[in-house]
Amino acid sequence: MSEENIPPVIDAEQKEFFEENGFLAIDQLVPPDDLLPIENEYADLLDRLAHRLFAEGKVSSRYDGLAFGDRYGRLVGEFPDLHRFFNISLPLLNGGIDPDTFRMHSGPAVFGLLCHPRILDVVEAFIGPEISSSPVQQMRMKPPEKDLRSEVSGHSNIGATTWHQDIVALLPEADDTAQLTVWLAITEATIENGCLASIPGSHRDGGRVHCANAKLASEPHVPEHTLQGRDPVPLPVGKGGVVLFHKMNVHRAYPNRSNGLRWSMDLRYHPTGQASGRPAFPGFVARSRANLDEVLRDPSEWSRSWGRARDDILSGRYRGRLFEDTRWADVAVC
Fold first, then answer.
1. Could you tell me which residues are beta bridge partners of residue 264?
2. Is 286 in contact with 193 (CB distance < 8 Å)?
3. For helices 12-21 and 117-127, what crossing angle results, to 10°?
4. Fewest CB within 10 A of the end CB: N or C in the chain?
5. How far apart are alpha carbons 238 and 259 in whole angstroms?
6. Is residue 94 part of a domain?
7. Position 117 in a domain
8. Which domain covers residue 253, as residue numbers?
């Protein structure tokens, strides 16, 4: 692993910036070579799915020979539900679940990034050494906006993301959880291709009204008219860079107006013992100084835990709601 141009673990000035603004961008954190496993794993997954969908008559071509981003964009353009097979969490649906698309990917390269030591070093600087990986996680693979079909352009995994606070989709059990978001750039994130933007200091305002999203129930949004006078700060980072967020920070992602894929991961962590806010899905202990035996090191067991969660939901053994979509609504504002 090359250490060239890698910044040190969080210093006092960076922590003060985060506490003041509710976010912190680190241009380089994970060395690009450490992203090769996820790139290879997803290239293999895309190839398998391309062959399967073509054999089933769901796409007109396998698009062999295209670069990964172009191939993914062509395939998702014909089969919009493809993005569900690449996500690292099950779909957020409180009802109307279709077993055929109630899918996710839980490969070893994903697990490797969840447990990456440089990411955990940064997390430890903010929440301490007893760290659990939250199942409130997402894979965002965004083709150029111009190539998206209208029915999926509003889905934040493949299109623009509306203004929101990360607490909005958590159940009330996590109100006091010290959740930290680590947004990891698999490709460079620029203003043109859809980097993040944040409202500085918005984490100190408390919970904001989130209106229902007509296109997607799992993505309520902060209406823009309530943010008048609050200028956003764009947060571009390089490949392997991260943006940290307080769970109450208001942020969004711009649309991808480039000609290439913008790819990122939402990783979230909280102190072990605190609620994740997503009890239907499995978290795990990613680091511990006090209880080393509790740390999960087996990517296969992590994958199996998601399989068990899926089975529990589809079978009806799990009867609770998967996420919160109406708690922060206010008819007078929306």
1. 140, 185
2. no
3. 70
4. N
5. 17
6. no
7. yes
8. 21-31+105-315
pTM: 0.94
Question: At 255, which CATH number?
Answer: 2.60.120.620
Classify residue 146: in a domain, yes or no.
yes
Query: 31-51: per-residue pLDDT in tens?
Result: 999 999 999 999 999 999 999
The band of 151, judged by pLDDT with boundaries at 50, 70 and 90, is: confident
CA distance 247 to 129: 19
Measured CA to CA in angstroms, residue 153 lies from 8, 149, 194, 255 at distances of 38, 6, 13, 9
Average pLDDT in the chain: 93
Q: Would you say 282 and 303 are in contact if contact means Cβ atoms under 8 Å apart?
A: no
Residue 283 · residue 87 · CB < 8 Å: no
Q: Where does the pLDDT of residue 216 fall: very low under 50, low under 70, confident under 90, or very high at 90 and above?
A: low
CB contact at 8 A, 208 and 328: yes
Q: How confident is the model over 173-199, as a mean pLDDT?
A: 97
Going by C-alpha positions, the residue among 267, 306, 291 that lies closest to residue 136 is 267
pLDDT at 91: 92
Assign 140 to helix, strand or coil: strand
With beta carbons less than 8 A apart as the criterion, state whether 282 and 135 touch: yes
Contacts of residue 125, defined as CB under 8 A and 6 or more positions apart, other chains included, come to: 9, 10, 15
- In terms of phi and psi (left: phi > 0; alpha: psi -120 to 50; beta: otherwise), the region of 125 is alpha
